[in-house]
């Protein structure tokens, strides 16, 4: 600590003045950084209106002072009851969106690019994973999440998405934080922040199971659905989902159901500029708006205009063409305040440094692209309010009752612990050598490894050693040893388990037939794969799965045997290609609704009962282990008894030798059954060499 910093700390303690009050103006620039650094060490009583005055002075003098001020204010924002803890929040509120984005997006991107992980921007995000949420001070949690909400404004998706997951993690045990922040920030003029704030609040309550805070949140966000000017479809969707979640749980809310259901009000008709209206935007002008014309207007080069927009407006194609929609979006971007003076430098830097279109990293977006997303969401809101959605006869009817589900870009209902990208698709590797079988000819004929793998799935234990059964499981092992005649391949074993409900009265007849069948290559009915930007935590009741949620799975009659079975699982596999949070992609295998009942998602690959007891789990959500859906044995048996059902498992596996072009592989087909509390196992697996 230098003399100037020490003086800036001590002077206010004795004279209630700042160092700038007693020094000539020509010395202020030199004293600025020592004074700023000293703010972190001063007694609270010395932070006065004079302190805030001088912060305002330097913010108004030159933008060269801004970034150091932001650094300090970010640190102080995590000191609840500090006199400057909300200074940054209030200052950011005073600026309009376009003016704020011109420096705030630059600040966030610049410091995320820095290798220094101790910078406040990165530290505020990364520390969320090292904090004990159970003992976190409530006011600290509010202050922390409030700052992270401002990070949602970033055009750099890495900052935005990492901050989203960090915010949900911090508020994990204090979901009431979201109600307080919605009360503060829903009127913000930045749709990017409001949309992500609502998405986080919704995702948090899909996991939190706090009915009291859900009621307060729903009552708080319901009025935004009647907002006419903004009419952002994505904001409306998240607000609707929150309100419908409260209604679905039969909670006492302060609004009528019809008040939160379409159609809503918005400006109409659309004022769409003609091609002639945009003739002023010639090549010289395009250079002043980097990437904007190519992305928003150019139907040949634009990833946005050529793919995103036509797909999003398809239900309203009779009312507006893709070209008209693109022109409306382009004009709306300008109306939002996009000017070369504000954004040319940032957007040109992003294109120059990271490329454009499909060739850029998914996180590297321009501020202009941020405004394009906002404009598209507002366009969809207006169209949904005034144009009946339509689809062609040959198109499969969508499950969703949401307007902008295709614009969802992150599943906030999963825990989303950041992991290195190389860990996302890690395989189960091992040494596939059984006893003396060094050579493929002997190894491939030995079924013992497959039998051991199968048995291991029924030996799955969790929570004090209780027994669990698989409803579905997928296991794959690849041998990493190099052996003679491998020809570049490796030994592999894969194993798949699926299960089916069958009426008890039909079990004996079905078992007699099914135990002698080989199901390798024979198609058995399977559950559904649910994608289309469904949040995993919404299963099975969310609006993304239909107005009333997902219905019970219906029986499927086997073609070769007159008996109906019900596949016991579905797969929720949303593909959020834009998610830049480094969270492991998650395709979760889930029980069908009639087995799941009223259990709730826990955010970590499982479903819990009202006491918090885990009943179903997909182990791959917690590690790189077996992908599947496992259920507690006692809970499964209780369901089967109550529904007068039995269960059939089919087990398929293959052993692939390293030289599998020359040596035949082993195919394995096997069945098990669960009937009246007892597990039946077919005497011998069906083996085949092909």
How would you describe this protein?
There is one protein chain. With 690 residues, this protein is an alpha+beta fold. Helix content is 40%, strand content 13%. It has 24 helices and 17 strands. The strands form 2 sheets. Strands 1, 2, 3, 4, 6, 7, 10, 11, 12, 13, 14, 15, 16 and 17 form a 14-stranded mixed sheet that branches. Strands 5-8-9 form a 3-stranded mixed sheet. Helix 8 (138-151) runs antiparallel to helix 9, helix 9 (157-170) runs parallel beside helix 11 (191-208) and helix 10 packs parallel to helix 12. The longest helix is centred in the middle third of the chain and has 20 residues, at 367-386. It is globular.
Topology:
Elements: H1 3-15, H2 28-38, H3 49-61, H4 66-76, H5 87-94, H6 97-113, H7 120-126, H8 138-151, H9 157-170, H10 176-185, H11 191-208, H12 211-221, H13 233-248, H14 283-288, H15 292-296, H16 303-312, H17 322-335, H18 340-354, H19 367-386, E1 428-430, H20 440-443, H21 448-458, E2 461-462, E3 466-479, E4 492-503, H22 504-514, E5 529-530, E6 556-557, E7 564-567, E8 569-572, E9 588-591, H23 593-596, E10 600-601, E11 606-608, E12 614-617, E13 627-632, H24 633-643, E14 645-656, E15 666-675, E16 678-681, E17 686-689
Parallel strand pairs: 1-3, 5-8
Antiparallel strand pairs: 2-3, 3-4, 3-13, 4-7, 4-14, 6-7, 8-9, 10-11, 11-12, 12-13, 14-15, 15-16, 15-17
Helix pairs in contact: 1-2, 8-9, 8-10, 9-11, 10-11, 10-12, 11-13, 12-13, 13-19, 16-17, 17-19
